[in-house]
Design goal:
Structural class: mainly beta
Mean pLDDT: 88
Helix content: under 10%
Distance between the termini: 50 Å
Radius of gyration: 28 Å
Oligomer: single chain
Shape: extended
Strand order of the largest sheet: 2-1-9-8
Order of helices and strands: EEEEEEEEEH
């Protein structure tokens, strides 16, 4: 049985009861980027001298380092889209061959022989080619006027978007040809390439989102009071024992 509107508070959340929502308040027209096609690129890159390949990148080697001892990890990954080229396919111009040039930057941390934590900055420039992606051309031309400036500008309704999840899989301290210490990084990343168009969609809505709750304040708590309220910890770890008998035992005859 569905709940009534008076019992329903419109707010973002997990829909955990299918069919229990009341009818929407209205149908609204919104203008948003809609994903028409997307694909995933998965790469594991190691250092390799010379031109970049599917598996190697020359920029994964650091500049000479002073007495490095231990590689500790990477942080602050950043993604920057440099350029996009879309080439229509002859059989169906709505499908494009997409060439994206982008840059991945991050910091790699290491500990030197004096026990100090140092970092090295990396910038990896890559080019990926997607042989076939559905990127239809927009039929409408979009122009917008800014209220603040009063100037009109043409907008590109076609969007190529990149989404990245990257991590350093390994870091190898070694010597280069000049017998200098360097750090070679093994980089793994997942890259999603999306083709979007700005479109108008008709969607059901429950009205405007409600005003959110007030931000929580950090209330200072006496550490002894917090300790007194906390449960007693386990004094021994759980035992990993197998059951003595099967779950289904036959009755004795």
């Amino acid at each position: 049985m569905s709940i009534t509107r008076n019992e329903f508070i419109a707010r973002p959340g997990v829909v955990n009861k299918q069919g229990h929502l009341p009818d929407p308040a209205e149908l609204v027209c919104v203008e948003i980027p809609k994903v028409f096609d997307q694909c995933l690129i998965k790469r594991c890159l190691v250092y390799g001298c010379g031109p970049d390949t599917v598996d190697t990148d020359e920029e994964l080697r650091s500049d000479p380092l002073n007495d490095p001892r231990i590689f500790t990890g990477c942080r602050n990954f950043q993604l920057k889209l440099i350029s996009v080229e879309k080439i229509p396919l002859k059989k169906n111009p709505s499908y494009k061959k997409v060439i994206v040039c982008f840059q991945i930057s991050f910091y790699a941390d290491y500990i030197d022989c004096n026990g100090e934590t140092k970092c090295e900055f990396y910038e990896i420039n890559r080019t990926e080619v997607i042989s076939k992606l559905y990127c239809p051309d927009s039929l409408a031309q979009i122009s917008a006027t800014s209220v603040a400036t009063g100037k009109s500008s043409d907008l590109d309704s076609e969007i190529i978007k990149l989404e990245l999840v990257a991590e350093c899989l390994d870091g190898n301290l070694c010597k280069n040809d000049c017998d200098e210490s360097v750090l070679d990084i093994t980089l793994g990343f997942h890259l999603i390439v999306k083709c979007e168009l700005i479109v108008q969609l008709l969607i059901p809505a429950y009205g405007y989102c409600p005003i959110p709750c007030e931000c929580e304040e950090d209330i200072e708590v006496d550490p002894c009071e917090k300790f007194d309220r906390s449960p007693v910890p386990k004094f021994f770890p759980d035992q990993k024992l197998k059951p003595l008998f099967d779950d289904e035992c036959e009755d004795d005859e």
